[in-house]
Amino acid sequence: MGVKFTNKEGKCFIPVGGTLKLINNVEIPCNLHIPEIIVLCDVNNPLLGDNGAAKRYAPQKGASKKEVKLLEQGLTHLANLTDSKIAQKSGMGAGGGVPFGLSLIGAKEVQPQIVMGTKFIMELVEFEKRARNTNLIITGEGEISESTKYGKVCWEVMRFGKIHKIPVIAITGRINKINSRYFCEHGLTEIFCLSNNRMTQAYSISHTAELLQSTAEKIGQLLKKY
Question: What pairing do the DSSP bridges indicate for beta strands 38-41 and 25-27?
Answer without folding.
Answer: unpaired
